[in-house]
Amino acid sequence: MTSGAQANEDRVEDKVVDFYDNFTEVFRDLWGDNLHVGYWHDASDDAPIGKATDQLTDQLIARLAPQPGRRILDVGCGVGEPAFRLARTADVEVVGVSISTYQVGRAGERSREQGLADRVSFQHADAAELPFPDASFDGAWAFESLIHMPDKEKVLREIKRVLRPGSTLVLADMFSQPDTELTFQDIITTPEMSEYRAVIERAGLVVREFTDITANTLAPQEVRESIAADLLARKDDVIKMTGPEEFERMVDGVRVPRAYGYLLATVTTD
Ligand code: SAH
């Protein structure tokens, strides 16, 4: 028999909170302030990871293309870096939510440090129960955050609820391929690409664009080697986050591209 307390500990949401409350800084130290993969334009693009992760943000900004004055929801905001980039590119208000209270605190401090606090704010929330009224945003993105949410249909319906009719939602997320081997399996759920699209449609959203950008997210060899070297140099810290087996898998996964997929989707509420 499983006790109530144990059942609670098994919730993915609690594991995600634990992970990001404890390891956000380890990640930032390794990867930078963007907690998502990089985007390389083509074979001649040798951007280091910090620049490549901004380049992925730029792909989402171009798809969201918000008009000045609009209010945008950032679902799963990390420490706010994509929200700041969006607010610097477009004259919009951004509200970010994360299930990690640590991240919300850091993101808020960073917003004040960067002089953006009048337009970019953060709050603690579970994406499955957003603390906002119906139709209170003009656009949204979920930037590599749905990966942590097992019931994506429910979350997408919830995001749709808080969007005004005619709004755009941009999704960036991993999907699985038949031989996918990802790290952190206990805190991620990745459907295959066709199932992902079906989930979006079941949530009542209209898919306008659905692009497999996996090839652009595979870092050039040089960048991979530098990330692997950084991982090994910070082994003592990183291993606290991964455990020894996951650490080996992580280093391997950086050296040899894994068979995961990555998609960008632009969807509208109607
Ligand atoms: N979008 C950010 C962070 C990506 S990491 C960036 O690109 O930098 C995944 C993010 O999703 C984390 O901030 C994590 O706290 C958040 N997240 C995961 N599950 C969540 C949930 N159920 N509700 C809200 N946020 C969640």
TrEMBL record:
The name this protein goes by in its record: Polyketide synthase-like methyltransferase domain-containing protein
Methyltransferase recorded as keyword: yes
Source superkingdom: Bacteria
Domain Polyketide synthase-like methyltransferase intervals: 65-269
Record-linked PANTHER family: GERANYL DIPHOSPHATE 2-C-METHYLTRANSFERASE, ZGC:194242
Coiled coil location: none
One annotated GO biological process: methylation
Record keywords, A-Z: Methyltransferase, S-adenosyl-L-methionine, Transferase
Keyword Glycoprotein: no
GO MF: S-adenosylmethionine-dependent methyltransferase activity
